[in-house]
Each structure stands twice: as structure tokens, then as C-alpha cells.
Write a structure and sequence with these properties.
- There is one protein chain.
- The chain is an alpha/beta fold.
- The chain has helices spanning 3-17, 29-36, 40-52, 92-103, 122-135, 140-143, 150-162, 177-189, 204-212, 230-238, 261-274, 331-341, 347-359, 362-387, 413-422, 452-477; strands spanning 56-59, 63-66, 87-88, 108-109, 172-176, 195-200, 216-223, 227-228, 242-247, 278-281, 306-311, 322-326, 393-394, 402-406, 425-426, 428-429, 442-446.
- It binds pyridoxal-5'-phosphate.
């Protein structure tokens, strides 16, 4: 843990214990730096992190104050306790049914997997698309098939370098979104019947991939704040039966969990010790609410056991379907599978994104996007606190754009989803996120999928529905 994270955690603990109360002012940055003998910038980073957690608020020329939200009546969900049996997976029919149902309605899309398209520089991308295609020599359209547009691969490698990760241009395969990269990676490192470790809950597409490739899944206990349980991971690896891991260590879907860097490092060491590859699904890494981009496990991977998969779908160009795998020793295997399945990712969107990146402005766009998402997270948390029944549990992620809610145990999330769609709001029900369709009373909500006022309105609509369902449950269980 860095110095500023430690300071932030200490102050957060004082707030939780009530030693610092709502409205109290934190010591000034200068006082704190003198008392602690640390730099003012470290203190500032700690305060900024607390602000991003929503527990303090800066007031102009006055300092940092503890917010009402700091004494949040809504607790976070507990670490999951999945069945520790290996499972064959049959989730696809349910996923398709739920996605189709949501598509049939005109709704505020809190069930969506993407941020609001209005948050992206679509005009500039369109100009880049036109300019890049006019410039591209016709031959180039065919030369970069299979591994992808060379200039874009160089730009991706440069972005890794900025994050302190060495990535060879030849180890990067451009794919149709991260989904393609993840699926090809899993196929490259497994045979039917192999066992794959996943989080619980996990992104349903990992379960669909496991189902399609006729693999088996073992779900690991996962903390909504800090991700997959390391002891459980080690026990599974030590059994010698695991062929691959598929985790989302940074702003996990659906929990939003962020594995602390010290644990990411320990995970990289475990993978090397047991020689098991990890597919690191990292599509939300740029969408952090704090001051620093969290480093992926790939940053600690000295022996090359991590295949890092990401895309521009969630941070720049939704619908362009441009992603990649940074795959080290598995690069050629992934390329071969890519050639066999679809030959290559489409060239024009790659050329457009490459042109956009070359023009500059991506980092400024990301800063704006992050700021909007962090604000909208608090908007949704406030609306949940106002309208959902007491006892609702909700995550408070440090990035991404999903909240995970645990409702009263008798509430059926799929029934809630049907009612919500009729009322004009979509959501993702919990059973999609596990091999054995657990989490029946949980839902995933997207706080970035619509403008703030719509997020508030939709959350209030859901709150009213959940209250009604909660009350029905109480009546049912009242003895006659
Ligand atoms: C965790 C995670 N990984 C991968 C993807 C797919 O990314 P892409 O749209 O780039 O294929 C998603 C999309 O929802 C996701 O949530």
C-alpha cells in the first residue's frame, strides 16, 4: 500500500469509528504534512482519494470536510461464498433471454454494459475515420490483417510503457473488442474438460466462454471491495487441477472490486509458482475515481503468465469493436485461432482510433469521463439511500460504472427486472453472474449509462418497486 493510501485508510477508519463526524474539517494539508513528516502532495493525494470515495468534500478556500454520505446507512455486501464444487456451465440461454427482454423495451438503460454514448468524442472519431481512410494506401487495408493495424499496436504498446509495463508490439493482437481477445485467449490455453478459476459473481461472458469451450468452472469467494480471495486461489492452484484463471482485478464486473496492488503482486507470484496462466480482463482500468491508474497484474508478471486483454469499447469508442490481447508466449496461438475464426478485426475502426490517438486529446477525454462517472456514482448512491428499503447493501466502487446491490433475500431479481422493464428501467439480475445462478436477490446497476437526472429518476423507480416487493415478502411471512 502506498503512503497516501495508508493515510486515507487511517482517516477513513476515524470517520467510520465516529472519531471524525459529519461536518468536521480535516487538518489542513500543511498541518497534516508537518505532523506526519510527509510531503504535502502525499496528503493531498490522500484527501483526493477520500473525496473520490465520497467521504470528504473540498470547500473552496476552506478545506476538506466529512460529508453526510460518510456515515452511510447502506452497508456493502459481504464476501461471496460460492459452492466450492467444480461446475459445468449452462448459462447462455438465460443470458440471451435476459438481453433480448431488455432490448425489447424503451428504457433508461441501468442494465447496460456501456456508459452513455453521449460521453464519448463520437464526432472527432468520425472525423478521424474519414481522414484515416482517405489517407490509407489501399494496399494497407490488406497488409495489417490478422495481427492488426501496426501503428495502433505501437500506440497500445506506448500506452503500456506509460503505465510502466513493457509490451512488445509483436505481442499485441488486435481483436474485435476485448470479448474476442478473451475468448481467443481462453481457447488458446485450454482443452475441453479443463478447469478454469473465476470470481463469484463473475461477468457472464466468462461463463458463456467456459460453456462454449466445454470447460469446467470453479468460482472463488470474492470480496466486493478487494476482489478474489487469495487463500482460496492458492488452495485451488495447489490442487494441481487448474488449467487457467480468468479474473477482472481492476473494477470487476459486476462488483467493481479493485484488488490492492500488494495482492496483485502476490497473485502474479502464485501464477508463476504454479505455472498457471491468467487471462486478465482489464476493460475498466482507465475509469478510476482516484488519483492514479491502478496497475494491472500484468505489471507484476515477471515470468509471462498473464495475458492482458483490454479494449477501447468502454473508454473511447463503443461500437467500434477494437480491443486487443497482449499475450506473450501465447501470441502466435491466438493469432492462429483468430485467422481460423474471423481472419482479422475490421481495419477502418482501427485506423480511426489510431488517428484519434495521434491527434492527442485522449487523456483529456478520459479525465472528463472519469469525473462524470465519479459524480454519477454518488448521484446513484444518494438516490439508493433515499429510495431503497433499509437493509439494502450496495458496493462503493473506486472506478468503473457498476453498483452491485444485495436486496432482501426473498426478492427475486428476475421478477424485479420484469417489473422494472414495464416501468421503463432496465437492470441486470444477479443469477446471470454465476455458474449455479446464485445471487437471486442481487442486481447490477450502471450509473454511467444515462445523464444524472435520468439516473436519479430511474433509481427512484427501482427503489419504489423494491420497497413494494420487500413489503410483500414481509406480509407473506407474517403468521395468519
Ligand atoms: C469485464 C468485461 N470484459 C469484457 C467486456 C467486453 O468488452 P468489449 O466490448 O471490448 O468486447 C465487457 C463488456 O461488458 C466487460 O464488462
Amino acid at each position: 500500500m502506498t503512503q497516501y493510501e495508508q493515510l486515507a485508510d487511517e482517516i477513513h477508519a476515524l470517520i467510520r469509528s465516529g472519531s471524525l463526524r459529519v461536518g468536521d474539517r480535516l487538518p489542513s494539508v500543511r498541518t497534516c504534512s508537518e505532523r506526519r513528516k510527509i510531503s504535502q502532495s502525499t496528503v493531498f493525494q490522500a484527501y483526493y482519494l477520500l473525496e473520490s470515495r465520497g467521504v470528504v468534500q473540498a470547500r473552496a478556500r476552506s478545506g476538506y470536510y466529512v460529508t453526510p454520505r460518510a456515515q452511510d446507512p447502506l452497508k456493502g455486501p459481504e464476501t461471496s461464498r460460492p459452492s466450492l464444487e467444480t461446475q459445468t456451465v449452462a448459462i447462455n440461454d438465460l443470458v440471451v433471454e435476459i438481453l433480448n427482454l431488455s432490448r425489447r423495451h424503451e428504457v433508461i438503460p441501468l442494465g447496460s454494459a456501456f456508459p452513455d454514448p453521449a460521453l464519448f468524442p463520437l464526432d472527432r472519431l468520425a472525423r478521424s475515420l474519414g481522414a484515416a481512410m482517405r489517407r490509407l494506401p489501399p494496399r494497407k487495408l490488406l497488409e495489417d490483417l490478422t495481427t492488426g493495424h501496426l501503428r495502433l499496436r505501437q500506440q497500445v504498446a506506448q500506452r503500456y510503457a506509460v503505465d510502466g509495463i513493457h509490451a512488445d508490439v509483436d505481442d499485441i493482437v488486435i481483436t474485435s473488442g476485448a470479448m474476442d481477445a478473451l475468448n481467443l485467449s481462453l481457447q488458446a490455453i485450454t482443452e475441453p474438460g479443463d478447469l478454469v478459476l473465476v470470481e463469484a459473481p463473475t461477468f457472464y461472458a466468462s461463463l458463456q466462454a467456459i460453456e462454449r469451450l466445454k470447460l469446467r468452472a470453479l468460482q472463488l469467494p470474492t470480496s466486493p471491495a478487494e476482489g478474489v480471495d487469495l487463500a482460496a486461489m492458492e488452495a485451488a492452484l495447489a490442487s494441481g487441477t487448474v488449467r487457467a484463471c480468468w479474473f477482472m482485478p481492476t473494477f470487476q464486473n459486476p462488483l467493481g472490486a479493485l484488488i490492492p496492488e500488494s495482492r496483485k503482486q502476490a497473485m502474479a507470484e502464485l501464477l508463476a509458482r504454479y505455472q498457471v496462466p491468467l487471462i486478465e480482463d482489464d476493460v475498466y482500468g482507465d475509469l478510476y475515481a482516484g488519483t492514479h491508474k491502478p496497475r494491472p497484474i500484468k505489471a507484476f508478471d515477471k515470468q509471462g503468465w498473464v495475458i492482458h486483454c483490454a479494449s477501447f469499447s468502454k473508454n473511447l469508442a463503443p461500437g467500434y469493436r477494437v480491443g486487443w490481447a497482449c499475450a506473450g508466449r501465447w501470441t502466435r496461438a491466438i493469432e492462429r485461432l483468430k485467422v481460423m475464426s474471423s481472419l482479422s478485426a475490421s481495419v477502418p475502426p482501427q485506423a480511426a482510433i489510431s488517428d484519434y490517438l495521434a491527434q492527442g486529446g485522449f487523456d483529456l477525454h478520459l479525465r472528463r469521463l472519469r469525473k462524470t462517472l465519479a459524480l454519477q456514482r454518488d448521484v446513484m448512491l444518494d438516490a439508493i439511500a433515499e429510495s431503497f428499503p433499509p437493509g439494502t447493501r450496495v458496493t462503493r466502487p473506486q472506478g468503473g460504472y457498476f453498483l452491485w446491490l444485495e436486496l432482501a433475500p426473498h426478492i427475486d431479481a428476475i421478477e424485479l427486472m420484469r417489473q422494472a422493464l414495464t416501468a421503463g428501467v432496465s437492470l441486470m439480475p444477479g443469477p446471470l453472474f454465476s455458474a449455479d445462478q446464485r445471487f437471486a436477490h442481487c442486481i447490477r446497476l450502471n450509473f454511467g449509462a444515462a445523464p444524472a437526472h435520468e439516473v436519479t429518476r430511474a433509481t427512484h423507480i427501482l427503489g419504489a418497486l423494491v420497497r413494494a416487493l420487500a413489503a410483500e415478502g414481509r406480509t407473506d411471512s407474517t403468521p395468519a
